[in-house]
Specification:
It contains one helix and 22 strands. It is mostly beta strands and 243 residues long. The chain folds into two domains: 94 residues, Tumour Suppressor Smad4 (Sandwich); 97 residues, Tumour Suppressor Smad4. The strands form four sheets. It has a six-stranded antiparallel β-sheet with strand order 2-1-11-10-7-8, with no helix packed on it. A six-stranded antiparallel β-sheet has the order 13-12-22-21-18-19, with no helix packed on it. A five-stranded mixed β-sheet has the order 4-3-5-6-9, with no helix packed on it. The chain is globular, with a radius of gyration of 21 Å.
C-alpha cells in the first residue's frame, strides 16, 4: 500500500508528498523540507519496517515526533495517523493510483532558467573553498590494512555491515558519511581512523560510546571488539581481502 504525507497545518499546509524508504524530513537540505523553526535540520527518516510497513524514525531531533501528545522515537505509518513534527501537523493517507502529488525525491523545476555564471564566479568559489581548507586542519585519507568490517548485531540497523577500505570514516546521527539511526546516538558519534599502521576508534562522547563495556576517548581497535552506541551494538572484525 502506497502512502502519502499531507501537511495539514504550518508553512506548507496543503502540500502532499509520496513516502518512500530513505526520504529525510527536515528544515533544510532534506527531500521533504519544511521551514519550521521547531524542526531540526535532519529531523526524521522514512524506513521499511519489519512487518512490511513504513516507519518514520526520529534522527535525534530536539523536539521529536508527537502522536496524540506522546513523544516517540519511531512511528509505524498507517492511514489516518496524525503526526506533529515541530509546529507542523501531518496526516498519513492512502495514495490513490491516479493521485498526482509531489515526488519528494525530485527537486522542483525552476520557474525560469538560472542566470549564466560568469568565469569570475568560479574563481570566487575556488578561493572560498581554499580559504576554508587553510583555516581547518586537513586530514589525510589513508587505506585501512587490513580492511575494517563493522557489523550491527543489535538495534534498528541489525544486519547492516560496513566494510571500510580507507579512513578516517565518521559515524553519527547527523553524518552524511556513515549514518547511525539510533535516536540515542550523538550527531557526530565516533570516527575510525588509521594511525601509525594501526586502527583507532575516536570519540568526543566517552560517556555515551563504549568499547567492550568501557568508556573511551581513543583506543586501538582489535578483532572481536564490540562498540556500544545507546541501544546499538557493532562488532569489529578485519579482512585481508583487497576487494
Amino acid at each position: 500500500m502506497s502512502l502519502r504525507l499531507k501537511i495539514t497545518s504550518g508553512p506548507l499546509q496543503g502540500r502532499e508528498y509520496q513516502l518512500k524508504p530513505g526520504i529525510i524530513i527536515g528544515r533544510s537540505g532534506a527531500e521533504i523540507s519544511i521551514n519550521d523553526a521547531k524542526i531540526s535540520g535532519r529531523h526524521a527518516k522514512i524506513e521499511n519496517g519489519p512487518a512490511g510497513d513504513l516507519l518514520m524514525i526520529d534522527l535525534g531531533s530536539t523536539n521529536g515526533l508527537l502522536v496524540q501528545g506522546k513523544k516517540l522515537t519511531q512511528v509505524s505509518l498507517t492511514h489516518g495517523l496524525t503526526i506533529r513534527i515541530g509546529n507542523t501537523f501531518c496526516e498519513i493517507q492512502k495514495m490513490a493510483p491516479s493521485s498526482k502529488i509531489e515526488d519528494s525525491t525530485l527537486p522542483p523545476l525552476p520557474n525560469k532558467p538560472p542566470k549564466p555564471r560568469e568565469p569570475s564566479d568560479y574563481f570566487a568559489d575556488l578561493n572560498l573553498v581554499l580559504s576554508k581548507k587553510l583555516k581547518n586542519k586537513i586530514r589525510a585519507i589513508l587505506p585501512f590494512k587490513p580492511l575494517v568490517i563493522l557489523q550491527v548485531t543489535h538495534g534498528l540497523q541489525t544486519g547492516t555491515e560496513w566494510t571500510l577500505g580507507y579512513g578516517p570514516r565518521t559515524f553519527g546521527a547527523s553524518e552524511l558519511d556513515l549514518h547511525i539511526l539510533d535516536p540515542g546516538a550523538p550527531p557526530h558519534t565516533f570516527s575510525v581512523e588509521p594511525r601509525n599502521n594501526r586502527i583507532y576508534l575516536t570519540t568526543a562522547h566517552p560517556q555515551k560510546i563504549r568499547l567492550n563495556g568501557r568508556a573511551i576517548s581513543s583506543e586501538e581497535l582489535k578483532n572481536g571488539d564490540e562498540i556500544a552506541v545507546a541501544d546499538t551494538r557493532i562488532k569489529v572484525s578485519f579482512s585481508d581481502e583487497s576487494d
